[in-house]
Amino acid sequence: MATEKIKVSISNRQKDVKIPTGMRLLIRRCCNAVLKMENFKGSAEISVSFLNNDQIRQLNNEYRGKDMPTDVLSFPLGENGVYDINEETGAAMLGDIVISMQKAVEQAQIYGHSLQREVGFLTVHSMLHLLGYDHEQGGLQAVKMREKEEDVMNRLGLSRNESYVFNNEK
Fold first, then answer.
1. 6-155: what fold?
2. Which is higher by pLDDT, 79 or 52?
């Protein structure tokens, strides 16, 4: 069996929140876990960027007409399971994920869990968008997406009330 290569390019474009050690590895694990759960075949490329609230507000306004910061935005490059292919690598280019680190810190405090769990969740959520899932219309699609998010988070040991950093219970 040919080995699939998953390339996750991660860039930090903000200076407001220090990126904790291990965060990049966590994001790669989240991307891989979603692709595995979805039985994605072949190689894939994903880009993840850390922004601040001002930067993500500008994108949210430009692309969604919402002049306010949001936690994560997904920019899928494919439609209906068909993706552009990187000529050099042969990998499917799934798209871009942008995460507001300020919003992630805020939400982690509100929900009472670690920043790692919050960024992990936002990554999983956004990966599902890159693969064509949508919750905007609500209903069954939203429920299905939520179930998939929780499934991946549980597989990664990042279930709702736990953090893999502080989890000593079995």
1. Collagenase (Catalytic Domain) (3.40.390)
2. 52
